[in-house]
Amino acid sequence: GHAGTEAAAAAARLGASVALVTPSPERTIGEMSCNPSIGGLAKGALVREIDALDGLMGVAADRAGIQFRVLNASKGPAVRGPRAQMDRTAYKREIQALVGATPRLEVIDAAVEDLVLTANENGTAHTSARVAGVKLDSGVVLNAPTAVIATGTFLRGVIRVGTRPPVPAGRAPTALTEKPDAAAAAAANALAARLYGAGFKMGRMKTGTPPRLDGKSIDWSDERLTPQPGDAAPSPFAFENGSAPGAGPNRFKPPMPQVLCHATRTTEATERIVAAAPTSPHEIAAVEFDELDSMNDLESAEVRVVPPSSGGVDRTPVPAPRYCPSLESKIRRFPGRTHLVWLEPEGLDTDVVYPNGLSCSLEPETQINAVRSIPGLENAAILKPGYGVEYDYVDPRELRASLETKKIAGLFLAGQINGTTGYEEAAAQGLVAGAAAAGVALKGDAGRRFPISRYASVSDDSSESSDSDSFASALRRVTARDTSYLGVLVDDLTRRGASEPYRMFSSRVENRLSVRPENADERLSAAGGAPGGG
Predict the structure, then answer these.
(1) How far apart, in whole angstroms, are the C-alpha atoms of residue 498 and residue 303?
(2) Strand 212-214 relative to strand 202-209: parallel, antiparallel, unpaired?
(3) How far is CA 300 from the centre of its chain?
(4) What's phi and psi for 472, nearest 5 deg?
(5) Which letter does DSSP use for residue 387 in this model?
(6) Which residues lie below 8 Å from residue 267, measured CB to CB, with a gap of 6+?
(7) Burial class (CB in 10 A: 0-12, 13-18, 19+), 198
(8) Which of 241, 296, 343, 464 has its Cβ near the most Cβ atoms within 10 Å?
(9) What's the pTM?
(10) What is the pLDDT of residues 421-461, one digit of tens each?
(11) Rounded to the nearest 5°, which phi and psi values hold at 412?
(12) Cα(369)–Cα(357) distance, rounded to whole angstroms?
């Protein structure tokens, strides 16, 4: 996933020997499990910051993008958001190429089902154990002083479609990912038992995804569909491609052919169909965020789950995702309104269309009726129904600012396991966790003064000469909330926790007038390359 690849690449760039463990890597690395896009409001700023720190996401997105737009382009630069529609196949190919070209990074076809721990001789009462390696599903043990867990939605994950029995999985598999996804789910469930056993404060979250449509069945000539072209002067994510578009040689020319997206809206008929449908178990298991205030015990909504050892089924209400609400939730909360639906192509070599805005877990028959009540989609065919996903996460207040756990030394967590949602949030965490893990692996406690960029390697003895003031200054510039979106993300998670799937917004960034997407390189590249810096 996005967290795992960024973590592995960041650690390898810093001189660590890295094993990236995932089942069937040629089928799964770079998989876009949900929407076929990168960036957006605030998210685009994270991608730019990842690129400023030498990450992979921006480079791959520029190579695989089939439509580039800057959202909020008519507003001030503090709230603009670069975004690009992806060709799913091309993005996966580019990520795999970047991972394969990273020195000291070995990809292993397996799944991690347990941690190997040893006593932490220098630990406190709260950190009595440390990582000594990981155990694969084959029984093989890989010895390592640090490990980054990036399980996404696979940690005791289940998917739900209507009233069908829940299926243990982190996502609905494709023909390519069916076997590796099953292996990942089994291993992640075993890994969850270890985390519960270690005493981590954990909780349950949910998300969902819309049905996938056959583009050949959509009436693209319908005048009620509003075409949305990309920008005439595309803005790339990677600074090496010239992030300020304009006439002349600096203009970015996407290597992939560019396509249109289209907008449509739900109708009164859509609302009637959804409102009359039985509520799915996935929706019953959730509580709307604005209902939390009426609950007697807010903490119970955040973290009370049934541990795997009990054999029970978790029915504790958990907050529904406020910023990516299901169609059922939107209609329930905002009756009498229509809702925007974006028809997004998933690639150049496929007819699959992603109807952004129709996330749901309704019965398949209800989904068909609801989709066909929307202008332009009257004859649409559903290739895969929408579904809900429920999964475990670790309360991110269990982590240090480096995303190292407080209970187990050398164990780092990144991505949705920390209560976040979105590719970009996961990738940003992966970069921080991977860089921090490399520092600890190579230098022990001293290595917690980690650089992020390849321009300063913790394996370089010269890094020993950097004093604590130099390190502290560089670390603040990268991960402090007043200097980066990445810093706000980490600070929010580790100090405030996540009572709902956490999504990045520019409104969270107090210094957004100076912390902007287009100056991420000026803000972070030098700090990332500072000797001993963060």
Answers:
(1) 10
(2) unpaired
(3) 25
(4) -60, -40
(5) E
(6) 338, 373, 374, 375
(7) middle
(8) 343
(9) 0.89
(10) 999 999 999 999 999 999 899 988 877 664 554 444 344 44
(11) -120, 145
(12) 16
